[in-house]
Each structure stands twice: as structure tokens, then as C-alpha cells.
Amino acid sequence: SESYPNLERNKDFAKLSDADIEAFKQILGGNASGVITNSDDLLFFNEDWMRKYKGQSQLCLKPKTTEQVSQILKYCNDHKLAVVPQGGNTGLVGGSIPVFDEIVLSLSNMNSVRSFDNVSGILKVDAGVVLETADMYLAEQGFIFPLDLGAKGSCHVGGNVATNAGGLRLLRFGSLHGSVLGLEVVLPDGTIVNSMDALRKDNTGYDLKQLFIGSEGTLGIITGVSILCPARPKAVNIAFLGVESYEAVQETFKKAKNELSEILSAFEFMDRSSQVLAAHMIKQSHPLAQDEEPDSTGVSQPPEYPFYVLIETSGSNKDHDDAKLESFLENVMEDGTVSDGTVSQDESQLRTLWRWREGIAEASNQFGGVYKYDVSLPLPVLYELVEAVKVRLAEHDLISFDDASKPVVDAVGYGHVGDGNLHLNVSVRGYNKDVEKVLEPFVYEWIQEHKGSISAEHGLGFQKKNYVGYTKSDVEIKLIKDLKKHYDPNGIMNPYKYI
Ligand code: FAD
Ligand code: MLT
Ligand code: ZN
Predict the structure, then answer these.
(1) Which of 102, 121, 167, 239 is close enough to 149 for a disulfide, judged by CB 3.0 to 4.6 Å?
(2) CATH 3.40.640.10 is the classification of domain 365-458
(3) Residues lining ligand 2, Cβ inside 6 A
(4) 465: closest CA among 489, 441, 482, 488?
(5) Which atom of ligand 2 is found nearest the CA of 167?
(6) Per-residue pLDDT at 245
(7) Which CATH architecture has domain 113-228?
(8) How far is the CA of 438 from the centre of ligand 2 (A)?
(9) Which CATH architecture has domain 235-361?
């Protein structure tokens, strides 16, 4: 785990006392299960999904109502106690984990669906509703949550909004900045801001909710989310393709937009290295495998294509969608853009194909750790970052898949290429400062030089706290700090992170 030798606890923050814990018990109405002080029980809240960041919180609070959240924050603000809001704790930048002894405020006991209108498609939920639960609820009514991601079984809708998560459906349904209609937020002084009844259109002044979408717990606690949900597509197809070059990935994207147009719902890419990592975890034959034999550990290598593409189509008329996809595939195979492919409509096959894409996050972490970079770049240069990083790691003699004495297993690229979003994962045998120094700030400088963003979707959190300047200007950073000071003058909300 990361240690923080160069960081000091802010002495302005009070240390937790027994009297504070008593006060919180009072606020939670004597609900003992909502006040966690046992060190074993606190382990989950003090460590992130990658096991990279570790905090030392002595207290986790699990309120059940917005009123309780308000009273807790007011108390913390009055007593200068620092707070880290936490949803499903699946964040990938260390934002959900305390750095020192901040109090964790978990939303997991606020997990009810508040209402759903099956004419407008407006869903209102508590922030702690798990994304997959919300989507399953919507499925029963013929609707779909406009966001999907690999962590859906654990992440919260509130956490998704707090990180402005992008995910696999952004290409089709756009970002949460568009689909979230209203929020209920508790400010650090306990004030409750409620725009849950907002309608689709509302031009009465500043759109305040936008400030909290992607604020990563630094301005207030989101307790309720109102979101516009589309009708659930009745026909879903996936094509999993092998292509010979990154140029061919881009060409396939261009043609997919042209020919599949309104039914195109995801366009993802994976390099071969990412599929090798996935093969080591999934231990089944690759979707495009011909007759590769598994080795003695049960792993069979994916075929030799340098890149793979996963295309999803979703629509309301199966025959129409099938015909469109078929003709698209015929065209791209015939003109040589795509070299190989397989198609599926069957629910369990769909899930298997997605696993070779969604599983890469977990597969990159299977050898002991992962350094993750989640970046936006202009499409023509997007993959060059992965190549540059591989060269640099080799120059420093740090990388080998087979030689266990080298700290880095491999550097892999994949992601939402349809949104210009690359995920670069450096899979390591353990967290290692030498590797980190070779990667950072190199990766951030490279992104700045190529006019990208150092975070496309995971946010800044703790990992990128010193690197905001690679994407935001000094003027923008000053405005961000001004807003933070205005809403959180004592700085109690998620301190030591990106502001
Ligand atoms: P947490 O991890 O608990 O918190 C994340 C941040 O939000 C923290 O800073 C926290 O303080 C803050 N926060 C949480 N809840 C609240 C709240 N109610 N009010 C205020 N602040 C709050 N992200 C993508 O964008 N796209 C992906 O495709 C994607 N795929 C993923 C796949 C896997 C396997 C994993 C592990 C993660 C993935 N992520 C992805 C990362 C993503 O940020 C999270 O999965 C998710 O959005 C975070 O939700 P959470 O409830 O787990 O939040
Ligand atoms: C993804 O797209 O798979 C996610 O953002 C998670 C990740 O890349 O690790
Ligand atoms: Zn992603």
C-alpha cells in the first residue's frame, strides 16, 4: 500500500474524541450498527479496490436519512472534523479512502428507490443505491440506466455522480452532466440543497447541480439523485472483431458510425496485451480463438491480432438491427478493415464477450498491483501513449511478462475509444516507487504535449492531486479553489485530495 512520507496531517483538524462518538450515536438515534469503530470492521473502508491506498480512519458512520447526514456534517464542520464520503468504494484514484484519520461517511444504508415515472423515465433514488440494483429495477419496467460499468455490482449511483463516471454506454446516452436532472446534496455546514423535482428543462439561472457532478466528495455529500432513463433496447447484438492495426481500429469506428448510426451503442477497443492478461484470469479460450491449446496452467493465448474491437448495437427491431450489423460486417471484412470476428445475440454469450473487455480492470491487478492512467486524447495519437510507455519501461529495464525479477508484468491499452478515452494499465508485481517515478510525471507530460486530459472519467482523487495543472490552467485552478473555499471554508470535505 501507498505510504505518505511527504504529507502531513493538517493540524487544524480536530482529533476524534469519545464525546464526538457519543454525539454521532445520538444523531443516528442510538443505531449502533451505523457507528463503526472496530478496527477489523474498518478495514474495508480504509482500503481501496486496487489495494493501493490505505487510510487510518477510526470511525465510519452509516446514516439512514438525509437529515442525519445534515446533522453529522454540521457537527463535523462546527468541530473541525474532516470527512470522506464513501459509496461503493470502487473508485480508482484513491478518492474514497481517508488519507489520515478522517471520518468515513458511508452512504450504504441509504439505498431505497424513491420513485419512478414510467412516462417521463425519471428515476429518483437515494445516493447509496447500487448501480446494478437500479438497472434491474428499471429493467422490470422496460427502462435502462443510462450508465453501465464493470463495477456495477458494487458502485453506488451517488458515487457514480460524484465521479461523473463515463463507462460503456456514454457513446449512446451521453454523460451524467446531461442525464442527471436533479440532486439532493448536503453542504458541509449541514444545509440541504434539493433540486430533486427538477424537470427536463429549466433555465432559471445557474445549473448548480453541475458543480457536484464530478466533484469527488470535495464540496458536499450527494444524498439523492434524479436521473432521466431511456427505454430499454429490445434487441442487443455484439460483434467482437480482430484488426491488424490501430489505424484499422479508427477506420472501423468511422464505418461503424456511418453504417450502424443510431443503433451503435458501444465501441470499445483492446490491445493484444490486454487480452493476454484477461486470458490469464478468465482461463477460457478467447472469443476469436481457432484451435489454440491451453498451456499447463489452463491459459490459452488469444490469436495474434494486435487489436480487438467490441461493437454493441441496441435497438427496438431485431430484424432491422441484425440486417444492418450483418451488412456492416460484410463490408468491413470484404474491404479488409477487419480481419476476423464473431457475433452474438444470446444473453449468456453477450456476457462472455463483454467479460473479455470489462474483465481487463481486474486482470491488470491480478499479479499484485496496477498503475492506472485514464486519459482523453485526440484519436490519431491515442494509442501512441501506450507504445511510448512500453519503450520507456524497457529502457529502464523494468518490464517482462516472464521474468519475475522485473517489477512490471506488462503495459496494456484498451478503453472507450469511441469517446476518445484510453485506459493505460501498467500491471505490476507489487507497488514500486522506482516504477512510479519512471511513469510519473512522464505520462502526464506526454498527455499535456498531445493536448489530452489526465482524467477522462476516473477523476483526480489522491493519485492525481499534484498533476491537475497538466490539464487545467492556473486561472481555472484558482476558480476551483475559490468555489471550494466558498462552500467548504473549513476544508473538511475530503481533504488532501485534488484541491
Ligand atoms: P467511491 O469509490 O466510494 O467514491 C468515489 C469518489 O466519490 C470519492 O472521492 C468519494 O469521496 C466520492 N463519493 C462517493 N459517494 C459520494 C456521495 N454520495 N457524495 C459525495 N461524494 C461521494 N469509472 C468510469 O468512469 N467508467 C468505467 O467504465 C469504470 N469502470 C470501473 C470498473 C471497475 C471494475 C472498477 C473497480 C471501477 C470502475 N470505474 C469506472 C471507477 C468508478 O469511478 C467507480 O466505479 C464509480 O463511479 C465510483 O462509485 P462508488 O460508489 O464506488 O464511489
Ligand atoms: C473500464 O473502462 O474498464 C474502467 O474504466 C475501469 C478500468 O479501466 O480499470
Ligand atoms: Zn472506463
Answers:
(1) 167
(2) no
(3) 92, 150, 358, 361, 372, 415, 423
(4) 441
(5) 2
(6) 98
(7) 2-Layer Sandwich (3.30)
(8) 22
(9) 2-Layer Sandwich (3.30)
